[in-house]
Amino acid sequence: MTDGDRAALLVVDVQNDFCAGGALAVPQSDRVVPVLNEHIEEAVARGMTVYASRDWHPAVTDHFTPYGGTWPPHCVQGTHGACFHPGLHLPSAAILVTKGETPNSPGYSVFEGRTSDGTLFLMDLRTRGITHLYVGGLATDYCIRQSVLDALRAGVKVTVLEDAIAGVDLRPGDSARAMTEMREQGAHVAAGSDSLVPEATAENSARSASTRERPG
Ligand code: VGL
Question: Span 7-213: which CATH code?
Answer without folding.
Answer: 3.40.50.850
